[in-house]
Design goal:
By secondary structure, this protein is mainly α. The chain has helices at residues 5-26, 29-46.
């Protein structure tokens, strides 16, 4: 099974938002740190913000 980068980015974004919600509800900073890491991985894996812009 081959996953493309866009689906990997979506999965990490959903996981990051879930961990962020858990971190806010339980007030445990570890979950918030994990959420930030997952969201950054999502941004890097998606790669849309790193591409050159069309003029």
């Amino acid at each position: 099974m081959k996953l493309d980068r866009r689906s990997i980015s979506t999965i990490f974004l959903i996981l990051g938002l879930a961990f962020l919600a858990i971190g806010i509800i339980t007030d445990i900073k570890t979950y918030s740190g994990i959420a930030i890491a997952f969201i950054l991985i999502s941004l890097i894996a998606g790669g849309r913000w790193m591409r050159r812009r069309k003029k």
